[in-house]
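Researcher: Please translate sequence to structure tokens.
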Amino acid sequence: MKIVYHSITFLFFLLFPFLALAHDVSSADQEILRAGGLLAYVRVGATHMLTGYDHLLFLAGVVFYLNSFKDILKFITIFTIGHCITLIGATYLGVTANEHIVDAVIALSVLYKGFENLGGFEKLKITSPNLLAMVALFGLIHGFGLSTRLQSFDMGENQFLAKILCFNLGVEVGQVLALIPIIFIIKYSRKSKHFSAFYKAVNWYLVIAGIGLFFYQMKGYFMGH
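Model: Translation complete:
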């Protein structure tokens, strides 16, 4: 039980940074981009993924459901392709939406994954949607969320596409760095006889976090109008 407790505690602090800091488009980031060139976009992209608690919670939920490294690679690849399409495409074309609404939908994706992992559809006697298709769909939505972040910056007109691609590269680097400890924790925890309790606890956490983040974003949306 001690292993499970420490794993949950570590996962909590890993995946749920302070809300005030996560995803923040700060003046410091803007200054880094202004002074640092293309590599700065890689750095900021990685930082935004590593502090993107909603993205990481969803990825943790996806990985938790899978047993083999082959399946993990397949699903993460599909998710990555999805968010690359909307991150690059929406930013390049200047397509945007209210960031609170986009983040509210992303919060629902976290809720959805926890609910599915807990067998929610089976308990309701409903056939769950195709998991690979849903991961691809949520990848597109998550990428649109990242695009809204990137478009919050003053990117200028020079090397516009290169800046987008570098930010996207940074996101991928950040995603890999975040997934390494997540996969390690899950793999380590599977060896424990208490894994079933750990699995339920973390996925209930995803459900609760998804609900909380949804209302947090909707509050931000209505207060801004």
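Researcher: Any highlights?
Model: The two ends are 47 Å apart (CA to CA).
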